[in-house]
Every structure is written in C-alpha cells, then in structure tokens.
C-alpha cells in the first residue's frame, strides 16, 4: 500500500513509454468484475441455492441492441454455480430498478419485496388516513390544473405564431437586426469618443506636460508673501526696541544685608542708634545716587568721544 501512495516515482534515464505494451480489450467486449449477487437464485442444473450477497467473479458485457428509453445501457453478467460450474446469465432491468434472470437459474420468491412494495403504495396513497388521502387528491388535482394551463398557453402561442404571415415575421426580424446594428454603432461611437477624451488629457507623468499658472494664484501667492514679510518685519522691530530699552536701563547691583544678633540696648541708647542708622541710610542712599550719576556722565563722555 505504501508504494501506491507515493508522491514521486523513479523513472530511469533509458525509460521509453512507447515500449510499454498496450492493454488489449477482449474481442467480445467482456470484462471481469467482482460483484455480489443482487438476488437469491436456484441453479437449474444441480438445484443449489445461491444466496443474495454472495460474491462472484463475473464477466460483464454490454447487451447489444438493448437500451432503456433509447439512452440507458443494459448490462449482462455471467457467473458460474459454485457446485456444478454451470453458467448463469442475468441482466439489469432499468425499467423496474431490478435484475432479470436470463438462463441457467430461477429466481426464488421474495415475499418481503412484495410487502415492501405494498407498504410503499399505501404510504403514497395516504396510509389509510382519509384526510391524508383527500390532501393527496387535492394536490394531484392542482398539478393537473397547472399542466392544463401550461398546455393551453402553449397552444395559444402556437396559434398566434401560425397566424403571423412570413412577410411580417421577416420584417420583424429585420427590424430587430437594424436595432441591434444601431446599438452596436452607438457603442462604437461612444468608445471612440472616450478614447479621444483620454488622449486629449495630459497627465502629470506625460512627456509634454506643462503646468499652467493662473494670475489669481500668482496674486494670492504675492499677498501671502507680503503678509509673511510684514509680520517678520514687525517682529524684528519689536525685538530691536526691547533690546535698546534693556541696554538703556541702569545696572543695579543688589547685595544682601547681614543679620547680626546683639543685646538689646537701653532706651536712650536705642534712640541714638536709630538716629545713627537713619543718617547712615541717608548717606548710603546719597552715595548710591552719586555713583549712578557718575556712571551716566561716563557714558555720555564715551558717546561724545
């Protein structure tokens, strides 16, 4: 089994498929098949019973000149009795969905087959139920009415066609042909117009593509450029003004005062100390103002020089 299921097979380098011998079919058209007996038979020579389902190596052939409804093939089978080796022949019966014995044996009675057929007929008729039988007859009546309506419609159509003169039929056919030709011509014209439109359009990746710039677009671009330039100029002026103002302002150096702890003086001494501190503060303030004025004088002298 493993060799049958392989994916690839080895072919030697000197393999020649033309040397493979062809299989020849027998002249009588019979082929050997392995089959099971479809029915119970009794051999006519020795009286041996052959049960249904017994396996045989049979010879199968096409029954020459026999066709069911002119299309379905009828096959014939040949087997041999396992006791006396007498030949038994039977063939298919498509009309009854069964097999028919031809020679060498007789078919045994099969009572269950008749019972099954009777049961199937009873089930088709409604199984003895009056309501089911009535429904079946109603469905059959509707089917007959539909068939009659279809037949009547076919007859009326045939009568209408028979009343049409050959000249009228030819004229109608000619009109349909002309309408089809007109539709085809319109379709061709539309196709030609579409092709011309596509050729007239120049795409961006084309070799001779030229970009056209409108005056309105140029005007809008100039306005945008002027607006951006004006904004940058105003920002530059503001920055320069702030820079000049920062340069003109005096430089003030602030120093932290040291905090010292001392014993609280007496009431008279405290008053004297307050006066001294006030005078010292005024003197320091005057000194700071004098230094600031001197710095301004120095700056003015440098500018003049």
From TrEMBL:
**GO terms of molecular function:** metal ion binding
**Signal peptide region:** none
Gene Ontology cellular component annotations, sorted alphabetically: U2-type catalytic step 1 spliceosome
**List of residues binding Zn(2+):** 43, 46, 81, 84
Which Gene Ontology biological process is one annotated for this entry? Answer: generation of catalytic spliceosome for first transesterification step
| Keyword Nucleus found | yes
Pfam families annotated for this entry?
Saf4_Yju2 (PF04502)
Q: Which UniProt keywords apply?
A: Metal-binding, mRNA processing, mRNA splicing, Nucleus, Spliceosome, Zinc
Q: Does the keyword Nucleus apply?
A: yes
* Cell compartment(s), UniProt: Nucleus
* Disordered: annotated span: 97-126, 258-285
Domain of life, per UniProt, equals Eukaryota
Q: What does this protein do?
A: Part of the spliceosome which catalyzes two sequential transesterification reactions, first the excision of the non-coding intron from pre-mRNA and then the ligation of the coding exons to form the mature mRNA. Plays a role in stabilizing the structure of the spliceosome catalytic core and docking of the branch helix into the active site, producing 5'-exon and lariat intron-3'-intermediates.
Complex and partners: Component of the spliceosome. Present in the activated B complex, the catalytically activated B* complex which catalyzes the branching, the catalytic step 1 C complex catalyzing the exon ligation, and the postcatalytic P complex containing the ligated exons (mRNA) and the excised lariat intron.
Q: Which family does it belong to?
A: Belongs to the CWC16 family. YJU2 subfamily.
Protein name (record): Splicing factor YJU2
Classification from the root reads:
Eukaryota, Viridiplantae, Streptophyta, Embryophyta, Tracheophyta
